[in-house]
Amino acid sequence: MAEAENALYVHLAEDGGIFAVWGDTGRQAWITEGTLDLELECLKERGGELLYSRGAPNRDPPEIVERTFRRIVETQPPSIRLLAEPHPDAGFRGGATTLMAAARAGDIEVVRDLVRRGAELEARDADGYTALMYAANAGELANVDQLITGGADVNARDSSASTPLMFAAQGGHAEVVRRLLEAGADAAPPGDHGLTARGFAEQNGHDRTARLLGEAEQASGRRGAY
C-alpha cells in the first residue's frame, strides 16, 4: 500500500467495525460512526484523500455499515479511492472480530456503537470465545454490562466449555462476576477441564470472588464439582 501523508485510511470490517489510520501521524484506532464523521470533516477542510477498503477478502461488510459510510462520504467532498486490500493493521488473528477487540480493550464507545448497529454478539474466534468472554476475562465491567444489555449469552461456552463467568472468576474480577450472576449466569456446571467458576477463583487465590460464587451455588441449590 502506497504511503500518503495527507490521507485517511478507513477499513469497513465485516462485523460493522470501522478502522482508521491517519497518514500524517500514523495514529490508528477502531472508531465509531460519529468519530468517522468528524475525521472526514477535518479531511475535507485540509483537502486530503480518503482511502478505504471493505470487509475480508472477497466479502463486504453488513449493509448498514456500507449505507452509513455512503451517507457520510456523500456529504463530504474529499478525493475517495477504494483499495483492493485493507491496511495491514486492520485485522485480527484467530478469527477475532472488532467487537471482541474493543470489548477486551475496554473501548466502551466502540462496543456501544457496534452493539447499537447490530454486530453479531455470539460470533466466535478460533477458540470459541465470544466478545463477552473477552470482556469478562479483561475485567471490563462497562463492556460486560453493555454486551449483556445488548443480549449477549451469559452462559455461552467456548471450545473447552468455559463460560464468561469462568473467565471473570479466573482473573478475580468480582464485580464482573456479580454482574454476570445477576444476568443469570450459572455458577454450578464445570467445563471440560473439570473446573467450575468457583474452582477457577480458588485455584488463583481470589477469595472474594470464590465466596460470591459459592453463595451463588448455594442459592441455586446446586453445588459445583469444584
Describe the protein.
The protein has helices spanning 33-46, 63-74, 98-105, 108-116, 131-138, 141-150, 164-170, 174-182, 197-203, 207-219, and strands at residues 7-12, 18-22, 28-31, 49-54, 79-82. It has 226 residues and is α/β, with parallel strands linked by helices. The protein folds into two domains: 7-82, Nucleotidyltransferase, domain 5 (2-Layer Sandwich), CATH 3.30.420.270; 93-219, Ankyrin repeat-containing domain (Serine Threonine Protein Phosphatase 5, Tetratricopeptide repeat, Alpha Horseshoe).
Reconstruct the topology from this structure.
Elements: E1 7-12, E2 18-22, E3 28-31, H1 33-46, E4 49-54, H2 63-74, E5 79-82, H3 98-105, H4 108-116, H5 131-138, H6 141-150, H7 164-170, H8 174-182, H9 197-203, H10 207-219
Parallel strand pairs: 1-4, 4-5
Antiparallel strand pairs: 1-2, 2-3
Helix pairs in contact: 1-2, 3-5, 4-6, 5-6, 5-7, 6-8, 7-8, 7-9, 8-10, 9-10
Overall CATH architecture of the largest domain = Alpha Horseshoe
| The first-level CATH class name of the largest domain | Mainly Alpha
| Order of neighbouring strands in the sheet with most strands | 3-2-1-4-5
Estimate percent helicity: 40-55%
Distance between the termini: 53 Å
| Strand element count | 5
Which sequence of SSEs, written as H and E, runs from N to C? EEEHEHEHHHHHHHH
Tell me the domain tally. 2
Structural class computed from helices and strand pairing: alpha/beta
Radius of gyration: 20 Å
Average residue pLDDT: 88
